[in-house]
Every structure is written in C-alpha cells, then in structure tokens.
Give the backbone structure.
Amino acid sequence: MLKITDLVKRYGGGDPVLKDLGLTIEGESVVSIIGSSGAGKSTLLRCINRLVEPTSGSIVLNGTELTRLRGRHLREARRKIGMVFQSFNLVDRLTVMENVQSGRLGYISTWAAIMRRYPKDDIRRAYELMERVGIAHYANKRADELSGGERQRVGVVRALMQKPEILLADEPTASLDPKTSEQIMGLLRDLSRELKLPVLINIHNVHEAREYTDRIVGMRYGRIIFDDAPGALDQEAMDRIYSGSPAADRADGLRQAS
Amino acid sequence: MSHPDTWQRPPFISNPVLRWAVYLGVIVYVGWTLVTLPIDWGRVAEGLVRAQRIFGGAFPPSFERSGLLIDGFLESLKIAVLATAGGVLLSIPIAFMAARNIAPRPVFYLGRAIVIVARSFHPVIVAIIFVKAVGFGPFAGVLTLIVYSIGFVAKMLAERIEEIDFGQVEAMRAAGAPYFSTLAYAIFPQIMPRQIGLTIYQLDSNLRASAVVGIVGAGGIGATLANAFGRYDYDFALAITMVIVAAILLSEGVSGWIRKRL
Amino acid sequence: MTLAEMGRDDWARFTLRQRMQRYAVFAACALAVAWALGSIEIIWAWVWDAPVQMGDLFARMYPPDPTNLGTILRVLWETVNIATIATAFAVILALPVAYLAAQNTTPNQATLWLGRLILVTSRSVNTIIWALLFVAIFGPGIIAGIVAIMFRSIGFVGKLLGEAIEEIDKRPVEALEATGASRFKVIAYAIVPQVMPTFWAVAILRWDINLRESTVLGLVGAGGIGIILQGAIDTFNWREAAMVLLAILALVILGEIVSAWLRRRII
C-alpha cells in the first residue's frame, strides 16, 4: 500500500508545485494521473522514489516512510519501486540484456556488475520477462537498434527486474505512435494483473486512461481535484481538470473525453 | 517452458582466434616494452632527491630579472605575430594548390606534399634546422613558425575550399568572369570566416610554440627559459614558466572569446 | 526624379560604420606587424642571405646517407614505444582526473577545482618544458621522455573526457538511480558506456600527437630519435641528418594512417 499525506514540494521560493497532497493506493490496481502540463504529475511521481526531494509531508510504502531515508536505506527503498520513463532512458550503447539487468544493479556485487556476471536466476527471469513482452530475441542487440515501442518494453522489463512493490510510469506512451502506445498501456495493465503489482501512471491521453486503468486521479495546480472510477469522469470533471489550460491542451482533452 | 540461465556479452571482436591474438599481442607488447625499458632505479632514487633540490630551489619564484623576462616575452610575441602574418599569407596560395576541386592534379600533389611535410615535423626539429641555416635568434623562430602555421592553416583551409558550394563558381564562370574575379566573388566570401577564425587560433598556437622553439636557440622566452635551466637558476625558471602559463591561458581565453563572437 | 538624383547610382557593400570598423581592424593588424618588424632583433643581412644558406644546407643533405639505417630504425622503434607507453599510462591516469573535473560527476567544489587545476597545469606546460624538468630529475634517457609526454597528455585527454562526461545524456543516469543502484554502479552502467567512443577517439588522437612529440624529446636529452638527429647535426653529418628526417617523416605519415584505421575500426 502506498500512502501519501500532506505532500508539499516547492522549488526555490515560488508557489509550491504540490500543495498538501494526499493519495492512497491499495491492492494491485492500475491508477492513472491526468492533468494539464505543469499540474505537478511528474513531480508527484518523482517524489515517491525521491528523484525529486519533497519539501514536507509523508510517503509510506508498505510500512516504510520514504521521505526521511538517506544513502543506503534510500537505495534499498528505491529497489522496491520500479519506474518507466517517457523517453525510455535506456543506455543506448549497452545491449538489451545489460539494460534489463541494470534493474538488478541494487542487488548484485559491484564486481559482478562490471564483469557482467549476472546470477543465473536473474538471467532466467530476464529471459522470461523479455519473452512475455516479446523482445527476447533482441537480448544481444544494442538498445539503440530497437524501435520506440521495443525500447519502452525494455524499459518495462528493466523496472520489473527489480521485483518492485509498485511500478511508476511517467508518461510511458508520450513518445510513441498511437498503436504502439495502446500496446504498451495494455501490457502495463496485463502485467499488473499477472504480477499483482500496483501501477501508477502519469498520462496525457485521457482516452487511454479511461480504457486501460481502474481509477483516474485528476490533478490541477498541485492538488487532486478528481479521484474516481473512469466511468465517473464526465464532461464537468474534465472541465474542472483542464479549464484555463492552454487551448490546444484543452481541446485535445475534450475531444478524447467525448 | 525453460529459459537459458547463462548470458555472455557479445564480444567486441567476434572471431575468437583473432580476439585472443589481439589480447595476447597487446599483453606481450606492453610487458616486453616495460621490461626492456632501461630504467636505472638507483638513478631514479637519486632523481627524487634531485627533484627536491630543484623544487626547493624554485620556491619562491624569482622575478628579480624581470627585465630579461619581459624582453624574452615581447620577443616571443613579435615572433608569433610575424610568423602568423607570414604563415597565413603563404597558406592561402598553398591551400588553393592543395584543394582537390580547384587545383590541377600535379599542382594538387605538390600542394599536399608541402602541407604534409610542414605538418609532420615538430616545430622544434624545424627550428634546429633553421638555426643551423640562418643562425641563432628570432629570425629562425619566425621561419620555423611560418612552416608550422602553413602545416595547420593551409590544411584546414584546403579542406574548407574542398567543401565550398561550387554552384557559385559556375555562376561566375557563366557570367564570363575572369579567373581572379571568380576567386574574389565566389570563393573568398565562402572561406573568409573560416580564415579569420584560423588566423586567430594560429596566433594563439604560435605564441605557445614560440615559447618552445626558443629552447633550441630560435629566440624568444624559450631561450630565456633554457638559459635559466642551464644555469640552475630554478627560481627564475619557475618565474618564466609561470609567465608562460599565464600568457597562454590569457591568449587562449582571448582567442576563444573572439572566435565565439565572429 | 531619376535614380541618379536619388543618390542610387552609388553602392557600397558596407555602411560607413562597418567600413570604419574594418579599417580599424586592418590598421591594428598592420600596426602589430610593423611594431614586430621594427623592433625585433634580426640582422637583416642574414635574412637576405637566408635563401642561399638554405639552399646550401639542402645541397649538403643530398643524398641521404643510409649507412646507419639499422640504428635509426631501432631508435625509431624506441620512439614509438615512448609515445605508446606514455599515451597508455596518461589515458588511464586521465580517467580519475576527468571524473573530478566534470561538473556532474565531481564529488564537491573542492575536488572540481583540484581536477581543473591538474588539467590547466598539465596543458599549459609544453612537453619539451616538462622534458627539461624531468631530465633534470631523472637524468637523460627514455624515462624522462615518457613521464614528460604523460604529464602533458593527462591534461589534454582529461579535458576532452571531462567535457564528454558533462555532455552525456542524463536520462539513463536518472533511470539507474531510480533502480537503487549505488553511485559507482550508476557510473559503470550509465556514464562509462556513453563516454567510451570519446575515450577511444581521444586516446587515438593523442597517440598520433605524441608520436610527433616523442621525435623531439631527444633534443633535450629525453630519449628517442631526437638524440640521433642532434648528434648528426652537431657533427655536421648532414647526409645522416637527412636520413633521420626522412625516417621521421615516414613514421609520422605511417602513424597517421594507423590512427585513421584504428578510428574506423573501433568507433
């Protein structure tokens, strides 16, 4: 269970990006966070694994308070949180297998990491997961030889290699074409069911959020102003989430909502 | 369904025989060269004592003979200025000779040969020869750095000329322009920005190099430094080195600043 | 009103101000050259005599004398070894320096300045000056040469590598930090692979430069082919000096071919 209470993040002296935010995620549900650019979606996700340092508040994952961890304890906590990125964030010049195994770096010795001597269990698990998402035959290819959808699959497998207790996905489909994007969303949903894994997805595309997730959280100006099942996201809620945002953004949101 | 539980990173050289041959070759080469290095450990140990004496003698740096220092430095500056002016002027015709798309084949080979010879010899070697031919002093330094400048400027300029847009040349020829007008209107405008950048860069390099060629007798602050070393005036040598370093940093900064603004 | 009356029959490429600026730059250049020419201590008689002297020197060099070719080639090989060994050590030593001198990897401000200080010191002192120092310390010989080239190369390699580290794609670094990997593993997996191409390119480039530099070490007593050249010149054995020069020319051209080939193969 992930429980966020009174989370505040302020950059410099300005207006806070996150304002006393509270959010609880239980069970293995797929939760999407929608909201216009600048609403604080990405900051919220990055506060959870502390890529961004929260200003105040509390984030508890399965009994561990994350906001006060330092050094080794922080790294141990991060191992339990998988993350998938918008631009995949793979190491282009390494092979797919090395990229996938880099999800295990927190668990193996430095020597094994440098010599690429991965434990047998990890290699077997990597092949299983890669086969599950359909990239096993690319194990020895360099990451930059793959297409966008395939690269995101590598990103997903890397995160799953951590055996995470929760998976965060920051705009996982924003760099992909519509068809691939749906495939990745479907994959995230199916994996969540298969692995009994809660998944928290930041997403721009409201249609995909409705289609593939169990619960939608709407953010605006650093606050959660909508939190319900996809069916409850009506025109009025859409207006509240997106009103006043740049015209293009809004039109896009409305069209996808209808 | 079972999955493999071993994985090996694809090796850089896929042919195993070749791969091991390369590894073995590198190990044998490095091992053999290191073992056969004529190191006299006694001499090295002695050297450490000597290093102590040198550094002890070098601190604090002595600026007592600053007159000598300033003269040497100004001479280096003059050498650098004259060599840059001469080198860049000579580089232009040589660059045209060494550009494949402009020069007739035999001229091209001659131009390339000049550039290769000028580039291949370290300025210190060129300086020794000029010192023997025209005597000690700054003149040998100027000649040396002219050769040095040609090696770099003519090469870069020739490469730029080879990349120019030839359509402009054809347009000039189609308009019936004579040879030199074609050069002036279709080629110079295309290479001018590069030429100015190169000139400033070369002035900077020449200043650096002029500190060195002096060591073998070609004038400038290098000569002052070599003399100080020869007379075991390590404190003066340190002062000279500090001035050289400061001047180089300054000139690098200035030349970088100007080239950025061009 | 005709065009001429409007003053449109006159055209200049630059405005008056631009023209003035250009003239000012030209004048400054001319002045600098005039100052240098006027005050430099050159005996002009020697200058007019120079072409004759040069011709005379080249005449005495011809034909090159190959009697000592065996020795020349052996020492030339030694020169290659100096360049190669020094480059290898310098490249390895430059790694930690680059790590310190790159803003995004250095542990703190103090180490950043330490790294930069090492780079600047190494880069601004020429190989020959380093060689003078190390000959004074270690005595004449190869060791002084190797150490001198190493000292100069560390700055060169370290600076370029440090810049490469600063320019890497930071997103994979973020991703690996998110997996809970330690600092060292993040460097090994996210930074090293990105810097590898630059590493090889810089190593090869510096080896090519060092090959040239190692040919002159001998002139200050730091080993290599320069010693033979100096000997031949000091004894006015110009035909042998010509042979040595030809050998150096061949070596440098060969080095350029080898490094171009390596660049193609490795990168």
Notes: Residues 51 and 57 of chain B are 10 Å apart (CA to CA). DSSP finds ten helices and no strands in chain B. The mean pLDDT of chain B is 85.
